[in-house]
Request: fold
Amino acid sequence: MIEVAIVDLITKNSGIIALIGDRIYPLRLPQDVIFPAMTYSVISNPEGHITHWGNPRIQLDVFSERFLEGRDIATRIKNLLRGYSGIDNTNAVKIKQIVFINWQDIPEMDNLYRVSMDFKILNETI
Reply:
């Protein structure tokens, strides 16, 4: 699963993990989460039938009680992933390229801020 490979890339970055720890969750945040935290989801996952290359769109959302903190974490993640290529043997994925599409600042309720980022990933299962 490509999203697991992306999360593994993020968790190997000491600067990002120093800020969010292990608070990275699929799809949604747990009820009593400590902030800052992050969620990830696969928005679409088309696969070429001839080439066997996938081109999923992944959404990463950073949640923080402080706007600038969330933006800092999102910027670090964007800089880590944008343009990345490599092989993840643990998850059996060959990533040809990660393309940053955009981000959006979204105010949430109760003084919570979200930075939502979209990435397209050209990958092949190995």
